[in-house]
From TrEMBL:
It comes from Streptomyces peucetius. Residues 603-613 have a biased composition (Basic and acidic residues). The chain crosses the membrane at residues 28-50, 70-91, 98-115, 121-138, 150-173, 211-232. InterPro entries: LPG_synthase_C, PG_lysyltransferase, tRNA-synt_2_TM. Residues 251-557 form the Phosphatidylglycerol lysyltransferase C-terminal domain. This is Phosphatidylglycerol lysyltransferase domain-containing protein.
């Protein structure tokens, strides 16, 4: 591997490493300011709600933003605290717009401090925080995240729930000045009326009613203003693969596609892509919950990988996204860690079967052999063909069956899913189908089709398993039958190697069940077996192990250990195990589009869910 950077032969790898390690400046200032905004926001909310707190010894700390001696000042303090809480996360992530909002809010707070409370301490603290923001303005340059107007609905739901909760605290914070003994229903009714600016059923003495009314009105106004802002601000849609991007990626795969079994999955059209300066390498990614998630190795010439990786890291820094890579090979992990200073951890193993070595003979393959023979005696037959050799009617039937046979409501798959079947541009893909004549009733909408598996190209002499679907009424063992059929038909297709699947934490599962395994390893294996009830960890390993594959390790690349939970959660979202979208009755429905060459012919990404036996 060359020691020069793609597009720059004058700089050595160690020099670039040192430069990139120095590039991301320490996040002490944004983290400190964001934390200060959170603490001050909570203090101001408390100062606006609780009268005793406003007049306690902590009042000088609470004066960082507008004070709360009068009804209007209390509402102003509460509003400022809520806004600071909303801005704190964006400030920690270096977001430019959060910085601008804080810069505008702090002077207003300082003025309010002086006008309403004549507090020199409050003014000085507000201005000190403002000076700190202005002094380090270069740290807050991150661009906005991909977003849509659906965030306005999420904001409305969350702000409404928070306003109701805070409203109940507000109306209950004056027990000695409440007339009568109102119940929870009366308090909730008073809150709802107050959020809309109307007077509720509760009555207070000594002017407290004005304070409560101003605070509730401020919460309602904040909910309305933030929702309207999010609804009418310009959209920043997530990056998608364009026709030109796809063409360039296919050109790279035509030359270098045999290096990585996950290379063809870079052609998912819900991914973004960054190319190296020379265009000889690319990294595909998706942004999920602030994590810039790549999968597999970079596509293209290995010597050009550093240039693509540098562009990837620059994009992550520009938006303040957390960079991460899921499922890269050992070579990919070495290049990623060397070029970026990121850390690397083994995630699992990929099962690869060498076609020349595969055979159903022998004791080790007895279970698979017996299952296949039993199914064949039951009248099932198989067909293995390139996608370009199927008719349009067959493709439509397979798509409809694959969609209807999906085992979950949520589409699954990201790192090892293409998201479509039968696209004209994917003519080299291999589709294996299982057929059995029906009982004569002719009620099946799929004819004699009983199961399907789909392989994508892996260079010119390999293929990688993309999905497996079967009719739930079909006999067990359809997946084994079709995989064996595909492996037996592989020589005629010019295929020498087949990537079956990815088994997470395979080595831990394998070592933990052996004699002599230590208590820690056994405990870790026990936890993985427990989690397998939901995530198919053990079942995928055992399913793949039936075919006696060789195991290729795969790795996750990440910045810091503290980022692993966040990256893991984002990966689960990308793979479809965690769904934060709106419930189906409220989800946005898109009208179907007519198929076109090199375009989405499948309606949504396919799932990996049924790939286990």
């Amino acid at each position: 591997m060359s020691a020069t950077v793609d597009g720059d032969t004058s700089r050595s790898v160690p020099d670039r490493v040192r430069r990139m390690l120095r590039g991301p400046r320490p996040e002490a200032v944004p983290a400190l300011v964001g934390t200060a905004c959170t603490v001050v926001g909570l203090i101001d909310i408390a100062a606006g709600i609780f009268p005793r707190f406003r007049h306690s010894r902590m009042h000088t700390i609470a004066e960082v933003l507008p004070g709360a001696t009068g009804p209007f000042a209390a509402a102003l303090s509460l509003s400022a605290g809520m806004l600071l809480l909303l801005l704190a996360h964006g400030i920690k992530r270096h977001k430019r717009r959060a910085w601008r909002a804080a810069v505008l809010l702090l002077p207003a707070g300082a003025v309010a401090q002086f006008v309403y409370r004549h507090s020199v301490v409050g003014v000085l603290l507000s201005l000190t925080l403002l000076v700190l923001l202005l002094r380090h303005r270069g740290e807050f340059a991150a661009l906005p995240d991909p977003r849509s107007r659906w965030r306005a609905l999420a904001n409305f739901v969350l702000m409404s729930a928070g306003s109701l909760a805070l409203g109940l605290v507000i109306v209950s914070a004056h027990p000695g000045r409440t007339v009568g003994n109102p119940g929870l229903t009366d308090r909730l009714e008073h809150v709802i009326y107050g959020l809309f600016g109307f007077e509720g059923p509760l009555r207070y003495s000594e002017g407290v009613s004005w304070t409560v009314a101003y605070c509730l009105g401020a919460l309602g106004l904040l909910t309305a203003v933030t929702t309207v802002y999010l609804a009418f601000r310009p959209e920043h849609p997530a990056a998608r693969l364009t026709h030109d991007d796809e063409r360039r990626l296919r050109d790279l795969l035509a030359v270098h596609g045999g290096r990585d079994s996950l290379g063809h999955f870079a052609l998912r059209r819900d991914k973004g892509v960054v190319f190296s300066p020379s265009g000889k390498a690319a990294v595909c990614y998706r942004v999920v919950s602030g994590v810039m998630l790549a999968s597999g190795d970079p596509v293209g010439d290995v010597e050009a990988w550093p240039g693509a990786i540098e562009r990837f890291m620059d994009e992550a820094k520009a938006h303040s996204w957390t960079p991460a890579v899921m499922g890269c090979s050992e070579t990919g992990g070495e290049v990623w860690t060397r070029e970026t200073g990121l850390d690397c951890l083994e995630l699992g193993d990929e099962a690869v079967v060498d076609v020349a070595d595969f055979s159903l003979a022998g004791r080790a393959m007895r279970n698979v052999r017996q299952m296949v023979k039993r199914i064949e005696r039951g009248g099932y037959r198989t067909r293995v063909r390139r996608a370009r050799d199927l008719t349009d009617d067959e493709i439509r039937q397979i798509r409809r069956a694959a969609a209807d046979w999906r085992g979950t409501d949520t589409e699954r798959g990201f790192s090892m899913a293409l998201g479509r079947i039968g696209d004209p541009a994917d003519g080299d893909a291999v589709i294996a189908t299982a057929h059995k004549d029906d009982d004569g009733t002719g009620t099946s909408p799929y004819g004699d089709l009983r199961a399907v598996i789909h392989f994508v190209p892996w260079g010119t002499d390999g293929m990688s398993l993309e999905l497996m679907r079967r009719d739930r009424s079909a006999d067990p063992g359809m997946n084994e039958l079709l995989i064996v059929a595909a492996l037996q038909a592989a020589p005629a297709l010019g295929v020498e190697r087949v990537s079956l699947n990815f088994a997470m934490f395979r080595s831990a599962l394998a070592r933990g069940e052996k004699i002599g395994a230590g208590p820690v390893l056994r405990m870790w294996r026990g936890l993985l077996v427990f989690l397998s009830r939901w995530f198919q960890i053990e079942s995928l390993y055992k399913f793949n192990a039936k075919f006696r594959p060789r195991w290729e390790p795969r790795f996750v690349v990440f910045p810091h250990t503290r980022d692993l939970p966040r990256i893991g959660f984002a990966a689960m979202q990308a793979e479809g195990f965690v769904n934060l979208s709106l419930p189906r009755p409220f989800a946005r429905r898109r009208a179907p589009r007519a198929p076109r060459p090199c375009a989405h012919l499948a309606r949504r990404p396919e799932t990996h869910e049924p790939r286990a036996a």
